[in-house]
Amino acid sequence: MKKTYLIGVLMFILLELSAQKDVTVSGSLQSDILFPESDQSIGTESYKEKVLTNTYLDLSASYLNYLTVGARLEYLEHPLPGFEKDFAGWGVPYFYATGRYRWAELTVGDFYDQFGNGLIFRTYEERSLGIDNSIRGGRLLLRPLNGLRLKALGGKQRRYWKHNDSYVWGTDAEINIDEWLRVLSDHEAYWLLGGSYVGKHEKDEAIYIAPDKRLNLPLNVAAFDARMQFQKGGLNLIADYAWKINDPSYDNGYSYDNGNALLLSASYSKKGMSVLLQAKRSENMSYRSDRSMSGSSSFINHLPAFTQQQTYTLPALYPYATQPLGEWAFQGETAYNFERNTVLGGKYGTLLKLHASHIRSLKDEGNGETYYQDVNVSVEKRLTEDFKLNLMYMNQRYNQRIVEGHAENGDIIHSNIYVAEGTWQMNDKVALRSELQYLNTKQGEGDWMFALVEVSWPPYLMFSVSDLYNSGVTDLHYYMGTVTFTHKAHRLQAAYGRTRAGYNCAGGVCRYVPASKGFQLSYNFNF
Amino acid sequence: MNKRLIYILSGILLGFYGCDVIDEPERVIETDELHFTNKVVLLEDFTGYKCLNCPTAAEESARLEEWFDGHLIVVSIHAGNYANTSGTAWQTDFRTEAGETYNEYFRPDGYPSAMTDRKSFNGTLTNSNISTWASQAVARLAEVSPVSILLTPSTAGADPSLSVEVIAQSSMPDDTYLQVWLIEDNIVAPQLMPDNSINYTYTHRHVFRAAVNGTWGESLTDLPGTENHRKGTYNYSLPSDWKPEDCSWIAFVYKGGSKEILQSATTDLIP
């Protein structure tokens, strides 16, 4: 009753505001629905419910540039498969008011924010993973001078339908030196220095090491970050170092070791080519607002993944999850566009990309054991005026035991993956796209094949049928048929088929998704 | 310039309070929070032989049994995907219909995951943080149970039998149920180890075998006796592949609504 009353009040406020002059109301509705069917051959769970849904309604109202208020209604009472048990519920877990005046901005309520690259503080929402670690409290943002930005924030962190008991607070300062040193701005060079501090206070708890002995746990744990970014023309350099004092937790086996992370990145781009090189070392940098929490909730910080986000199905079959205890990670990428009317470019030009990622354990932990590695090369080439071809080859090594906690036929799945995608613009209105993919491996479940055909009438209509087939071990087909309608701000997608059990990952954070089958409906509306 | 310096310094110096650095000699403290009462606590460990982290949990529960010396009963419920028999190494089926029902009802978030007297701690019922199982058990052990359970096993008849008496200390709580289980200890069968190797001669402890008086037991008011003293007798025909000398009876009383366990007891099958 309380929730319904609160929703009613919020709707009334927003309706009243929308009628006012100079007030803009905006929002979005996202609803993903599954009508689940049992299919023992692919190992679906059994459900009592006939309908499962994750539905979100965001509303906000802004008065000029001075004030913005907003709230989100979430209906997750019968959620889609694969989310943690505490994820289920419904209500208005997110609301805020932000006021702006001159160089100050104050938010009270729930908010997301990030300090630098997120090594010690990042709160965000990622609905596909069930992640929402927003802070409920207050945030002050100041820009008192050109090139200077200061932040201070604090509050309690959200964990599903509650907030953890601990308090989290932090400060962040960024200075654009180029605003103060004319020699830099004269040469169009940009130089940013940043520093952050985050603290958490948790109450004590008993972790026993003997019937009459327990750990003396730190109640206040601090983390610090210092970073630099330099940019001139196409060159961009980033260095970020973070460290954390003793933080015994479930993640690190209640170790009192300090944590640290170093991130280095260099990129260069100009017309027709780009290069990126990155290195990261992290050790014991899992930082949660509940030291005894497991699973994907309650992280205060975020350690970025150094793997490419894959859009093709088979290269994404074995996605990597950043290891909180520590890892070395290296990533390199280069792209070169062979111009049109050249030998290698052909009539329409050719884009060549090369990417490599290598992630391994720290020497002390696993003696340099490979956690993940991939080398892939892709070519995008328009062959005729109406036909474009993309080809990709990937060599991948994926440590299943480390990432998933189990492994079949050996710890490391070593795969060769081949992808071919063709798009034929049949006429002004209709396009036909097809993908063929093949994954060859002796480990895991053996070989996989994938095929897709898609017909689209952009921007209104799209049909696709696909099949993911395991020829290696199970001989199972995971077929799927999809229809998508788009009209202005509305998008409706209907699909029927099977989904394989696996991991859905974004930014190095993964969620296990169990196998499912049934009719799916997705609706998005932005206004 | 002074103003700028003030802004910069205040921005980066604000909130440096909050750094508890604990040096090595101070990391362990003595505690006297462990107190035994009449309470015997039940630890139900959801597990499976394909669960890579479960041997670590089994070591911890064995350690807790030793610490709490007769006041903690451990049961390993093999259920879910990590207990299925797909794969040539995994032909010993430890699953039971009752165990799968408990797994579906309590929905552990992962494996291993334990419940301590089916009591919610910090808002969660099942707990996969092995390091906190001890503190949950200590908290429960400090509570005085409103009931006592007396068990009298017998092998005089064709099948092993058990007499159970539930006695209220003052008055019997409302809506309470009696559950009787059988477990078998020391079963040698494969187990996936933390290094992903399979130990084919692993000794499985406290394996849940049967819910003797039904998956959810029976209401105390259905048992003969007086309001504050109920008695029941149970027997069970053991399958031929069970070892009677390694089997034990477990009986516990729990609240019908919350499923919270008020008291537990155990005895060997063979007296």
Structure description:
- The complex is a heterodimer of chains A (527) and B (271).
- Chain A is mainly beta.
- Chain A has a domain at 305-475.
- Chain A contains four helices and 33 strands.
- Chain A has helices at residues 2-18, 182-186, 363-366, 400-404; strands spanning 23-36, 52-63, 67-76, 89-101, 104-111, 113-114, 122-123, 125-126, 131-132, 135-145, 148-159, 162-163, 167-176, 189-201, 208-210, 213-215, 220-232, 235-244, 259-270, 273-283, 326-338, 350-360, 370-384, 387-399, 412-425, 431-441, 448-457, 461-470, 477-487, 490-499, 502-506, 509-513, 516-526.
- Chain A has a 24-stranded antiparallel barrel. In chain A, strands 6-7 form a two-stranded antiparallel ribbon.
- Chain A is globular.
- The model of chain A has no long low-confidence stretch (mean pLDDT 92).
- Chain B is an alpha+beta fold and 271 residues long.
- Chain B has helices spanning 2-13, 54-68, 97-106, 133-141; strands at residues 28-30, 41-47, 72-78, 113-116, 147-154, 161-168, 176-184, 187-192, 198-204, 207-211, 218-219, 225-226, 229-235, 247-255, 261-268.
- In chain B, strands 7, 10, 11, 14 and 15 form a five-stranded antiparallel sheet that branches.
- In chain B, strand 14 (247-255) and strand 15 form a beta hairpin.
- Chains A and B meet through strand 10, strand 11, strand 13, strand 14 and strand 15 of A and helix 1, strand 1 and helix 4 of B.
